[in-house]
Amino acid sequence: MTKPLAAIYIRVSTEDQAKQGISLSAQEEALKNYASALGYEVLKIYKDEGKSAKDIKGRQAMKEMLEDAKVRKFQAIFTYKLDRFSRSLKDLIETIALLKDWGIDFVSLQDKIETTSASGKLMFHIISAFAEFERNVTGERTKFSMDKKARDGGLVSRAPLGYKIEDKKLIPKEDSYMVQEIFQDFLNNNTSLTQLAKKYNLSVNGLKKVLTNQTYLGKIKFDGQTHPGTHQPLLSPTLFNHVQNKLEKLRIK
Q1: Could you tell me if residue 100 is inside a domain?
Q2: CATH number of the domain where residue 112 is located
Q3: Is the full-model pTM beyond 0.70?
Q4: Domain encompassing residue 188
Q5: Could you report the per-residue pLDDT of 166-214, keeping only the tens digit for each?
Q6: How many domains does the chain divide into?
Q7: Active-site residue, selected from the candidate residues 13, 52, 88, 176
Q8: Is residue 158 in a domain?
Q9: Neighbours of 106 (CB within 10 A)
């Protein structure tokens, strides 16, 4: 029978070697023997020499290995110790979760962690659950922060037509009069949306967004909620509402 293929990842920084004497060759020999004992054939050894564990992005061999893992060039990754992979818990959890999604087993020799057995697979699921938890917490924090900013009348997205951003605040631009002109043009003429969009160098969808944007009333909208903004409005509520009524009649919202 053909043996499953394995990748070996080894890393050592100058500091590691000086303090602990963990050489690349020592890691390589131990991992080759362990992979063989578990019935794997080593396809490739990925080496990052003199690289810190703080950031995965700065390690070329790590990036190459993950690209190969994504297309399943091998069935398992062997590493000497978890801190060879990363000293960032967030990076470690996210990377192992990716390997799980790709169906790649993960083995850490010194930490006695592997996903080739039932208990190891359970550990994989636990780590993946932590990764999902971390993503959800981050999303909730971001949403809470943006919601708080919206409730305080602050900017939560990029500046719409007619505004610019200065010191994280919306400021009317010199050509902000164009917004009122677009609204008046739409309301008082029977020009098609396509023609009107072309006149103002917008796409049709872009024009619709302009015509329905409550930011021009001095408001901030986020997550379905509208809050009073701290910026200067460009339109009167009367003009804005007349345009919304016309849009409703045309059924183009």
Answers
A1: yes
A2: 3.40.50.1390
A3: no
A4: 153-250
A5: 887 888 998 889 999 999 999 999 888 899 999 999 999 999 999 999 8
A6: 2
A7: 13
A8: yes
A9: 24
